[in-house]
TrEMBL record:
Signal peptide annotation: none
Pfam families per UniProt: Glyoxalase_6
Protein name: Glyoxalase
Segments forming domain VOC: 2-113
InterPro entries: Glyas_Bleomycin-R_OHBP_Dase (IPR029068), Glyoxalase_6 (IPR041581), VOC_core (IPR037523)
Gene3D superfamilies xrefs: 2,3-Dihydroxybiphenyl 1,2-Dioxygenase, domain 1
Length: 113
């Protein structure tokens, strides 16, 4: 398994106010979408999110998003190494995702084809 990139998650109170700062910082244009009651913006290596506390807790409980070239293989490798599947692979607005708890406690979202 190879992790191709890591996306840093950041909760913001006002997504519309935060996006321009991160666009300037990264030189990237935000891609906005909604998922599970949360409004999100992907800007370079940052995933900004905002929404009601209950919905945001589900997103904020994940330390980072790890992009992989083969999601099924990455999940299989992680589980073989002691990770626990918290949420199995499922389609999302941006591909497929699975959430795993690593053997040392960290919870990570894996995304890929």
């Amino acid at each position: 398994m190879a992790i191709e990139s890591v996306v840093v998650r950041q909760r913001v109170e006002d997504l519309d106010a935060a996006v321009p700062f991160y666009e300037r910082l990264t030189g990237s244009t935000a891609s906005r979408f909604a998922f599970a009651g949360v409004t999100l913006a992907s800007v370079g290596p940052f995933l900004l999110f905002s929404g009601p506390d209950e919905a945001v807790r589900r997103v904020a409980g994940v330390a980072a998003t790890l992009a992989v070239g083969d999601l099924d293989a990455a999940v299989e490798d992680a589980v073989a190494g002691g990770a626990e599947v918290v949420a199995p692979s499922a389609p999302t607005p941006n591909g497929h995702r699975a959430v795993l708890r690593h053997p040392h406690g960290g919870v990570y979202e894996y995304v890929g084809p």
